[in-house]
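Researcher: Quick test of sequence recovery. Tokens follow.
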């Protein structure tokens, strides 16, 4: 799954991220970042955590299904993109 930053200038392959976290950038500004990319800025920690919840929900739509006949498995309904929401789009 790709994640597009708030500013729309970065695409990050979420499947290759070691971590994504919320950081207290400075008073009143919380960021959502990977180790290599700033993805979004929010005015409260609750909003930033809510965005992580949103990413988790979309990523959780992956479903691995095994065929009882062939024994093979596949991943279906893979979300391809997550757009980081703007601060005013996140309700807590």
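Model:
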């Amino acid at each position: 799954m790709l994640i597009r930053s708030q500013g729309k200038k970065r695409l990050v392959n979420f499947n290759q991220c070691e971590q994504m976290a919320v950081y207290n950038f400075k008073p009143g500004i919380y960021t959502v970042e990977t180790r290599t990319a700033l993805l979004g800025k929010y005015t409260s920690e609750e909003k930033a955590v809510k965005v992580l919840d949103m990413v988790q929900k979309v990523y959780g739509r992956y479903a691995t299904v095994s065929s009882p006949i062939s024994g093979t498995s596949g991943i279906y309904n893979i979300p391809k993109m997550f757009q980081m929401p703007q601060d005013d789009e996140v309700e807590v």
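Residues 2-83 form one domain.
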